[in-house]
Amino acid sequence: MTDLLVLAAGGAVDLPLGITEGGNWFLRNAWLIPLLPALSFVVILFFGKRMPRGGSELGIAVLGIAFVLALLTGAAWIGHRDNYHGDEIHRAVVVVDDGGHSGADAADHGSGGGHAEQSLAVVNTVTWFQAGGVEFSVGTLVDGPAVMMLIVVTLVSLLVHVYSTEYIQDDRRYTHFFAFLSLFSASMLMLVISENTLQLLTSWELVGVCSFVLIGHWWEEKPNSDAALKAFLTNRVGDMGLIVGVSILFFSVGSALPDRFGSFSIAETNALASAGMLPQTALLVAACCLMAAVMSKSGQFFLHTWLPDAMAGPTPVSALIHAATMVVAGVYMIARLYGVFFEGLSIGGSSINLMAVIGGITTLVGACLAFVQRDIKKVLAYSTISQLGYMVMALGVGAWTAAMFHLFTHAFFKACLFLGSGSAAHAVHGFDMKSDMGGLRKVMPHTYRTFVIASIALAGLPPFAGFWSKDEILVGTGGWGLFGGTGGNGAYTLMLVMGMVTAALTAAYMTRCVYLTFFGEFRGHGEPHESGRRITVPLWILAGLAVGAGLLNMPSGFQLAPGSMQERFGHVVEPVAGYFPVISHAGPSWSLAIASTLVVLTGFAVAGWYYFVRVEAASAAAGRSLTELPDGPTSRYALARMGHTFLVNKYYLDHLYTGIVAGGTKGPVAAAAYRFDQRVIDRGVDLVGETAVSAGRAVYDKVDQMVVDGVVNASGRVALDTGGKLRKIQSGRIQDYAAILFAAATVLAGILIVIV
Amino acid sequence: MSRPFLLAALAEFDRLDGGEVLVAQNIAFAVVAVTMLVSAVRMVTTRNVVHAALYLVIVLAGAAGLFILLGAEFVGVTQVLVYIGAIVVLFLFGIMLTKGSFGDDDGVEGEQRLMAGLVGALVLCVTGGALIDTFGGAELSRAEPSLTADVSDMIFSQYIVPFEAVSVLLLAALIGAVVVARKD
Amino acid sequence: MFLNQFLLLSAALFAIGVYGVLARRNGVLVLMSIELILNAVNINLVAFAAFGNSLAGEVFTLFVIAIAAAEVGVGLAMVLLLYRNARNIDLSRIDLMRG
Chain B 42-81, CB below 8 Å of chain C: which residues? Predict the structure, then answer.
C-alpha cells in the first residue's frame, strides 16, 4: 500500500486515493465489530444448547457490545471527518492513453477543484496470501457510509435479537436460530467494511447463505424450504453478474496500474474510475454486470420474485434480513463502487440511465403489487421492494446522499413495520389480514401505535423520517424547474414523476394495511392479546427512530434548524475524497416539499375515505343485517353485490380504485400484474432452478409425446417400447445409476480415443 | 539429502547388477503388484466386512510401497499415515457402528454382480487398451527421489490456491460430517 | 521399468474398485471401494510425476489424499445417518429415486 512509484512526468501521475492508514483507534480497529458476532456464532453453535437461555444471551450481549463499538466508531468518525490531517496514501498511475489530458483531469480531481475539505477514509489491510504475483488482502475501509451501516446493522440486529427471544420462544431450533443470526450479523458487518471487492463478494455470499438458512428455518414445511431454495437460486443468477463484474474491474484496474497485474481494492478502483482513467466501455459492462447482482440481492424488478416468498421465514428474520439490512446490500454496493457506476452509466448530466430506470420501474411495480396482497408480510415485502427501488433510483439519478439517507431511515421504519406485523401475527396465529386480523387496535395498543407511526414514516409525512429522505430523493432527481429545485446531476423528470406516484400509492396501501389489520372487528380465532415487553420495547425504539431519524439531515436553506444542524448526515456520511466521484447536490425547494406532502395526503385521503368511511359504513350495515357471516371486507363486497343497498358502493369500488391508483393501475390491472409476476416471471426463475431430474423427465415426456403424435404408428410403438424399457432403468437403486454412469463414461472415453 | 532406506538399498543392488534393466525394482514391483491385485479382488468379494477393511490396508500399504519405489517418499509416508492410520480406522469405526444390519455377511446378488463385472471389465479394457496404445514402450527413467522440501515449496508457492481450497474443503467436510451425523 | 507397469496396475485397481462400488450392497464397503479407485488414481499421478520429472503429480496426490479423507468423513456420516433412519445400510434397498 505504501510503496510509491513515480515515473517520469507525462507518463505517470500520482493519484490521491483519499485514504489514510492513521486515525482514531476505533477507526483502525473496526474489524473487531464483525469479529465479535463471528465468534459468538461459533460458540453458540457448539455450546449454545448448554447455556441457560440457549445461546440467545450470548448473541444479545455480543450484539450489544458491537453496537456500542459501532457508536464509538461513529463518534470517532465524526471527529476524524473534519479534523484529521494525517498522511494520505497515493498510488502512482500510468496514464495509458492521451497522457496529458487524463493526467490533468486526475490532478484536478486530486487537488479537489470543488473540494475545499477532504474526508480521508481509514484503510487498514493485511495480506491474506499471494499467488502468481497477485496480492490478496483483507482489510477494512472505514468511512461515512460504512460507519452509518455499522450503526444501523448492529442496532437493528440487537433489537431483532431481543425481539426473537420472545417471538420464537420454545422453538425447536432456538439455538440454531440465534447462531445464524450471529453469523448473519458478522457477515453483513464484514460486507459493510470490506476493503476490496473480493472480500465484498465473500461476505455477499455469506449473507446469502444465512438468508437461505433462516428463510428455511422451518424447513419441514415444503413451502418454506421451497422459498429458501428460490431465494438462493435467484440470488445465484445475480451473483454470476457480481463475479463477472468484479473480475472485469480487477483487470481493467490492472491495465492502468503499471506495477501490478490487477487490483481488487475498492478505493483504487473508484479513484481510477472517477478520474476517468479506466476505459468507459469496461466500466459500462462492469456496471451492468454489477446491476444484475443488485437486482437479485436488492429485489429489483424483474429478479425480485424471491423476496415476497422469503417471507416464509420467521418474522424477525424478515425484519432484519429482508427489510433492513441484507436486501440493502445491493444498494450499498452501488454506493460503495459509486465511481464505477457514476462513470460507467454516465449518470451526471443525463436524463435517463439503466439504474434509474430499473429503480423507477421497481418502485412502481412494488407499490402496485402491495395493493392486492392478503398476507400482511407480503404487503410489507412488496413495500420493501418498492422502497429499494426508490433507493436504486436515487443512486441512478446521482442523489447519493439521499439514497443513503433513505436506506438509513427505511431500515428503522420498515424493521418496525415488520416486527409490528410479527407481533400482530404472533397474537392471532396467522398472517392473513382478511381472515385472521382486524380490530387489533383495542387489544394491541403498543403494536397499533408503533405500526401507525412507522406507516406514516414510510408514506412520508413531515416531520416523520420518511419525509425527509424521500423529499431529498425527489429533489435529487433535479427534474422539474416548476418546483424550484436546483442543481442535481441531470434532468431526471421521469424519475420525479415515478417517485411522486409511488408516494401516493405508498400512502394508500399502508392505509389499507393498517385498516385491515387494526380496524373493524376481529375476524380470526382466539383471544389476541398484546405481546410482551421483549417485543414492544424494540417496537417503540424503532418507532422513535422512525419519527426522529429524519432530523439528522435537515435540508439546508429551509431555515428549519440552525445552520450547524443542517445536513449533518450528508456531511458526515458522504465521502469527499479521491475515491469518490464529484457529484453535484440539488438545493431543496419548498414547493416540491409541499407538493409531495399534498400527494401523500391525497393518497391517505382517498384510501382513508374508502376504508374508514365506505367500508366502515358497509360493515355497520352488514353487521345489522347478517351478523353470523364472518365480518371481513371480502364478504362485505359479496354482500354489496347481493344487497341492493350497496350496489352503488360496488360501483364506487372501481371508482375509488381509479382514484387511488391514478390511471392504469386499478384493481384488475394490479391483480393482472401480480399474476404476471407470479406466473410468468416466477415460473421463469423457477424453471432455471429446477433440478436436472425433473427437467430431464419433462423433456423425455415431451419428446415421447411428440414422437407418438408426430410419426406413424409403427415408429410410435417403437418409441413406446423404448420408453417402457428406459423406465426399467429408473429402478431407484443408486448402484444401477452408477453402473450406467461408469459404462457411459467409459464408452465415451473409448470413442474419444478412437476418434482422436 | 537422505534417500529413503529402501530405495538406497535397491540402488546399491542395481549398481552391483550393472545393467540398464532394474532387476531389483522390477522384482519389488511384481511382488507388490501381485499382492495388491489379489488383496483388491479379495476386498471386493469377501463376505466378511472386517476382512475387507484389512484387505484394503494391504492394498494401501502396497500403494505406499509403489510410491517409494517411484521416489515419492513424502507421498508414501503420507499415504501410510493418512490412509492406513486414519481412514482405515474410520472405516473400522463405521463398520462397528453399523454392525447388525448385515452381521458379518454381505452377500452379493447374482444379477448385480454380473452387471458390475461387465462394467468393470469394460473399464479395464478401454483404459488398458488406451494405455498400451499410448505408452507402449515408454521407459521410466530411474526415479531420482524427490525432496520433501521441493514438494513443500511447490505446495506453498505455485499451488497455494488449490491448497487453500483443500483447506476450506476439509473444514466444510468437517462441519458437514458433524451436521449430518449428529443426533437431534 | 516401464511406465505401463504402473499404469496398467492402476487401471486394474480402478476396474476392481468400480466392480466393488457397483456390486457390494454394504454402504461402508462401497466407500472402501471408492478409496480403491482414488488410490488407483494416485498411483497414476505419481507414476506420471516420475515419468515427466515433475513434482506436480506428487503435489496433487497429496491433495487427493486430503480430499479422500474429507470424502470418507462425509460419506461415513451419511452411512451412519442412513443406518439410524433405515436401520440398515443395504444400498439395494434404498430406492427413493425410483422413477
Answer: 43-44, 49, 52-53, 56, 59-60, 63, 66-67, 70-72, 74-75, 78-79
